[in-house]
């Protein structure tokens, strides 16, 4: 902290000694040069800026270089009047946009100052000042375009390289929210500011509340080389400005209605009931003319929805038929109020408050029946002041907001409308696997976040230089609890014949023996620090930022910009915690070389055993130019800069518990496996019988219907003893098998991106502007979880442990001779066994006894945790077999984005006969997104815990991600037709997303290092040899899939992986024996001639309305009935398909075709319509409906 204070003092001194310019984070500015007819600059000209709506004026004088700058200014229409001795007075009508420096380069005409020349600069102008790439969505577009649900983020897709995402893809607490991906990176960390207040969810990402379009004046989206004053983000930033009052009373009231029975399409004849009522209103006006204004309003969404019950195994079709729909009600309430005051000496003060309440029922991928209710409550307030003193401008912002999320079981509220296995006899039961039903295991949980914000932006203009400087700080706190598996009994069900009890009914899930039960301790804290009224769970942080920059108007046509920004987020990687020492390791898990004050993490890799580094020197320089020769209707721009990224609090909390030695009510759970005779419950002990005396060995061999009451009784006894008790942390790494599961260690660095852009912008015609930019974003130091102990790697074979595993296997098959070749041959030939009758010992049998990775055989823990030694544990236990898997979060990942982005904008009045007004924007991007992230969502690169495709060399495989759409075309426009009719449209057409082709591990992880670990790094389910991430839909598509499969089957199938080569080289197996045990790479099943693919996104929305003018009652009054049709042509869209290519064993049930074989949903599986329908895009949580079936909305709006 002392180092931080030193840096702050240096930066404060630099700020106070620097000169700068301020453009507020929710306003814009007007700046430029005044010249005479010859092009010479005009000094001492008087420039008066008049806000048309509020009557506020600001007056400045051009300097000796003829330059002036006025700002910050609220977005809106302005009149710029320039007067100079010997020149005619010039009056220009122009528009100020959010976050934009409006061009103010004007040429005066010689003549009498009593004459005034009036010019309309137009709503669209070439940006002749700024170096970055950004776009503004205007109030006109927001009002006119058809936006399903009125969520402001939906409109952001008009910008190139922007893709709308459902917030539920990030976290269950974001059900009912949307997010936007910018430049191929998931929308988790896209920064969103409302009136200068950061409303980004710092815990899991996207926004803390939905911002409806009715409250918004306009917004700017920065896509590359954002202004040096921008908040911390390495991807995109959205600057949103709310509406304010004017000198005229104005407002509206609206009602929008949708119903599945009115103009909506179904899927394969199934119509899911749905109805949405959305209504509200806004009003603004003067309290004191030209001085004090107000604006406020509210709106509400009341949505009744029944989702089709999909996703269960076909054996439970009778349940699906009995409960074909799952209720998913959604409500969203938003209200806001704002005051603006124009005080003496040009000061502008504003205050704005919001209150949002949101509730949604969702499953977070656990469809059909495992429902939870997600509720949010968010108050917030922000205020600011903008004023000028001489050539200085100042902008202050301060705000506070609190986000309170509560996630509860939703099945109780839905009652008998859905299937629920829970009962008074069984207790609360949650099924997961072949059928997801019962209380959602994620509930209950609560999330809190507070953000106290302050920022200052200042400026000073001197000569041709516009200097700007600023400082911002946030006091952030995140906290809460998540009592997973706590309220209900988590029950893993696999509906296979082997798990069905004798005489059981296959259609009754309670007649199956559960594979495991997860028994939660009832606690839900992941941090020992108290906060928000809880005894733990708090993660606090400070965020500081400061910047200085100079914009030099070198000539009236050339602007040069240079700046430097510093930023820091404290304690996001648990930097407050000391590194664990060997003295903290439990006695039974201690080993030679790890004693006393020796750092424990050094036992995984030297250098990790130090306190995690807090990066303070995050300095991001930037520079660029904007050249607009001649008439300033063409500009050439280029910029380059470094931009740092933050880390969400979920990363902090998820990685913290394992490093904390303090006593607190920490979350943990025990696992009860089928066939076991005991259950280990952390913090409680080993349980061998239920409270009524029934042996655990009996319970765990019974069907769920008999076992659940007994396991629930054990759970109740467990929670009675440990729930709410501040006991020893049961998740501490030194007492839980020395397994480092995504923990921060010493060498932490903040991720950052190197961005550069270059492009041209040209006014083709009056009101028509074309932009084309090349955008590059290379992100470095991305956090990747790397197993530095390399558990499972082929080079870590422990021959003695391998011999022990082989001997145990041959003995289990009744063969003598231990690990000898004769004993192995005996086991391979022993077809008369109870494990898999008719078949001798397989590689899975040897692996189940230890000839496997420690990740699988030991559950990633050290052998000592199971009472074993390195010689009796896993054969591939890592570089140091005395510890478990060493997955540490290290700053080693990288990604890249390259794109050509083109935008055509048109906005004109009377553009053609019969057309009163038109507004059109067409955006296109030709892009490539690459990453080495092998997570379930490879585009979500800033969520720690993600792994690479190659653990030994994390950046070996860099390829395309699911957010990579090579071609993205978006357009939106509106027409005002003479005599009243208004038409509007919006469309999005994206090429297919990329997918990685990986080998099949769905039969289970046991022994997979011999079948799918083709590079020998210890991770399984590798990329198909010859491919890189994202190969499918790019290097491989259509008939090329079978060519790849045929080549693999000819060259790789039947051969040994590096693990297989290792056991053969060690003499543990002969090549023939390993092949007989099926310890080889498996053949891949052939694909259909027309295989499944990730389809392109296609959606087109259309709206029409007819204003009925009521001017005879009041000026500007109208009643506007209308209709909007979303996905008007009902174009089918499909969800992302995982890139697994199924092997040729045909062991899994095919959802699309009950005859069996390769399962549905695989690229080489069936591609019939039934399979396709399983992936058909349907309505998502909240108002998110991107690519869903056609819906029709009936609208009525009253304007005044």
Automatic annotation (TrEMBL):
Residues 1-22 form the signal peptide. GO terms for molecular function: carboxypeptidase activity. Residues 242-308, 329-1147 form the TonB-dependent transporter Oar-like beta-barrel domain. Keywords: Carboxypeptidase, Hydrolase, Protease, Signal. InterPro entries: CarboxyPept-like_regulatory, Oar-like_b-barrel, Plug_dom_sf. Pfam families: CarboxypepD_reg, OMP_b-brl_4. It comes from the Bacteria. This is Carboxypeptidase regulatory-like domain-containing protein.
């Amino acid at each position: 902290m002392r180092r931080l204070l030193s840096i702050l003092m240096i930066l404060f001194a630099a700020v106070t000694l620097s000169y700068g310019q301020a453009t507020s984070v929710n306003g814009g500015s007007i700046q430029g040069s005044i010249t005479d007819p010859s092009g010479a600059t005009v000094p001492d000209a008087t420039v008066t800026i008049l806000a048309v709506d509020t009557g506020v004026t600001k007056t400045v004088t051009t300097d000796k270089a003829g330059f002036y700058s006025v700002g910050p200014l609220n977005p809106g229409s302005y009149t710029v009047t320039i007067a100079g001795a010997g020149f005619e007075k010039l009056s220009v009508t122009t528009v100020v946009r959010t976050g934009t420096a409006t061009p103010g380069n004007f040429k005066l005409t010689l003549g009498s100052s009593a004459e005034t020349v009036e010019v309309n600069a137009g709503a669209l102008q070439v940006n002749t000042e700024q170096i970055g790439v950004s776009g503004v969505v205007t109030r006109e577009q927001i009002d006119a375009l058809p936006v399903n649900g009125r969520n402001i983020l939906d409109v952001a897709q008009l910008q190139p390289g922007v893709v709308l995402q459902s917030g539920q893809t990030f976290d269950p607490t974001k059900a009912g929210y949307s997010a936007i991906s910018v430049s191929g990176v998931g929308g988790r960390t896209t920064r969103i500011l409302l009136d200068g207040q950061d409303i980004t969810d710092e815990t899991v990402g996207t926004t803390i509340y939905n911002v409806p379009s009715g409250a918004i004046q306009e917004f700017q989206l920065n896509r590359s080389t954002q202004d040096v004053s921008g908040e911390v983000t390495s991807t995109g930033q959205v600057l949103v400005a709310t509406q304010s009052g004017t000198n005229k009373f104005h407002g509206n009231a609206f009602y929008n209605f949708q119903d599945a029975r009115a103009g909506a399409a179904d899927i394969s004849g199934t119509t899911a009931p749905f109805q949405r009522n959305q209504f509200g209103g806004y009003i603004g006006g003067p309290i004191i003319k030209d001085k004090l204004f107000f604006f406020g309003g509210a709106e509400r969404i009341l949505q009744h929805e029944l989702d089709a019950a999909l996703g269960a195994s076909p054996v439970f079709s009778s349940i699906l038929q009995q409960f074909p729909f799952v209720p998913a009600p959604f409500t969203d309430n938003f209200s806001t109020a704002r005051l603006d005051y124009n005080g003496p000496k040009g000061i502008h003060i504003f205050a704005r408050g919001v209150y949002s309440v949101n509730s949604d029922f969702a499953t977070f991928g656990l469809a059909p029946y495992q429902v939870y209710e997600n509720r949010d409550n968010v108050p917030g307030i922000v205020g600011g002041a903008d004023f000028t003193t001489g050539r200085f401008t100042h902008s202050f912002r301060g705000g506070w907001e609190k986000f309170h999320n509560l996630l509860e079981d939703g099945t109780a509220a839905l009652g008998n409308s859905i299937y629920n296995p829970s009962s008074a006899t069984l207790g609360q039961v949650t099924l997961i696997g072949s059928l997801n039903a019962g209380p959602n295991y994620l509930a209950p949980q609560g999330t809190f976040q507070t953000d106290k914000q302050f920022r200052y932006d200042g400026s000073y203009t001197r000569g041709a230089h516009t200097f700007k400087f600023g400082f911002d700080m946030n006091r952030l706190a995140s906290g809460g609890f998540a009592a997973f598996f706590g309220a209900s009994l988590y029950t893993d069900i696999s509906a296979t014949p082997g798990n069905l009890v004798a005489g059981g009914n296959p259609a009754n899930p309670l007649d199956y023996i559960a594979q495991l039960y997860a028994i939660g301790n009832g606690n839900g804290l992941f941090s020992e620090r108290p906060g928000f009224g809880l005894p733990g769970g708090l993660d606090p942080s400070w965020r500081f930022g400061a910047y200085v920059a100079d914009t030099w108007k070198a000539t009236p046509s050339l602007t040069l910009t240079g700046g430097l920004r510093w930023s820091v987020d404290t304690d996001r990687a648990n930097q407050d915690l000391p590194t664990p020492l060997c003295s903290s390791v439990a006695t039974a898990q201690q080993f030679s070389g790890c004693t006393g004050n020796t750092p424990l993490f050094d036992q995984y890799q030297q250098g990790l055993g130090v306190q995690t580094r807090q990066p303070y020197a995050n300095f991001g320089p930037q520079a660029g130019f904007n050249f607009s020769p001649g008439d300033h209707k063409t500009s050439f721009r280029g910029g380059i800069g470094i931009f740092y990224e933050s880390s969400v609090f979920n990363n902090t909390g998820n990685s913290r518990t394992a490093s904390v030695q303090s006593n607190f009510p920490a979350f943990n759970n025990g696992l009860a496996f089928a066939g076991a005779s005991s259950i280990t419950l952390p913090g409680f002990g080993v349980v061998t019988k239920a409270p009524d005396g029934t042996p655990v060995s009996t319970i765990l061999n019974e069907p769920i219907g008999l076992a659940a009451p007994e396991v629930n009784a054990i759970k109740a006894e467990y929670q009675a003893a440990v729930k709410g008790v501040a006991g020893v942390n049961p998740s501490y790494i030194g007492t839980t098998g020395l397994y480092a599961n995504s923990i921060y260690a010493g060498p932490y660095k903040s991720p950052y991106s190197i961005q550069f852009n270059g492009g041209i912008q040209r006014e083709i015609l009056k009101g028509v502007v074309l932009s084309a930019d090349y955008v590059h974003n290379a992100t470095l130091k991305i956090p990747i979880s790397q197993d530095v102990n390399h558990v499972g790697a082929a080079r870590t074979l422990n021959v003695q442990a391998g011999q022990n595993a082989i001997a145990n296997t041959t003995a289990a098959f009744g063969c003598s001779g231990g690990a000898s070749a004769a004993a192995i041959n005996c086991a391979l030939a022993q077809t008369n066994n109870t494990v898999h009758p008719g078949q001798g010992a397989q590689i899975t049998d040897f692996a189940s006894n230890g000839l496997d990775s420690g990740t699988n055989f030991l559950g990633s823990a050290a052998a000592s945790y199971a009472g074993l030694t390195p010689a009796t544990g896993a054969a591939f236990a890592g570089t140091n077999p005395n510890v478990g898997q060493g997955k540490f979060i290290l700053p080693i990942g990288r990604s890249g984005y390259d794109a050509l982005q083109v935008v055509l904008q048109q906005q004109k009045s009377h553009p053609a006969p019969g057309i009163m007004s038109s507004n059109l924007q067409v955006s296109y991007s030709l892009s490539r997104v690459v990453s080495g992230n092998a997570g379930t969502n490879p585009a979500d690169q800033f969520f720690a815990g993600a792994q690479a495709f190659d653990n030994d060399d994390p950046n070996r495989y860099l390829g395309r991600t699911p957010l990579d759409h090579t071609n993205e075309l978006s357009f939106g426009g509106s027409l005002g037709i003479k005599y009243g009719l208004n038409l509007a449209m919006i469309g999005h057409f994206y090429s297919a997303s990329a997918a990685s082709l990986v080998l099949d591990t769905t039969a289970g992880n046991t022994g997979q290092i011999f079948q799918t670990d083709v590079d020998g790094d210890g991770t399984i389910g590798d990329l198909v040899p010859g491919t890189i991430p994202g190969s499918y839909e790019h290097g491989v598509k259509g008939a090329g899939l079978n060519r790849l499969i045929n080549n693999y089957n000819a060259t790789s199938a039947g051969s040994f992986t590096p693990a297989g080569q290792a056991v053969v080289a060690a003499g543990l197996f002969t090549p023939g024996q390993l092949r007989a045990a099926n310890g080889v790479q498996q053949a891949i099943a052939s694909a259909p001639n027309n295989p499944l693919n990730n389809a392109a996104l296609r959606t087109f929305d259309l709206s029409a309305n007819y204003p009925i003018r009521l001017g005879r009652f009041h000026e500007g009054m109208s009643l506007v009935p209308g209709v909007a049709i979303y996905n008007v042509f009902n174009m089918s869209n499909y969800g992302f398909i995982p890139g697994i290519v199924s092997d040729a064993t045909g062991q899994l049930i095919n959802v699309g075709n009950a005859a069996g074989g390769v399962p549905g949903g695989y690229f080489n599986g069936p591609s019939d319509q039934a399979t396709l329908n399983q992936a058909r895009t349907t309505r998502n949580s909240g108002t998110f409906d991107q690519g869903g079936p056609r819906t029709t909305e009936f609208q009525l709006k009253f304007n005044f």
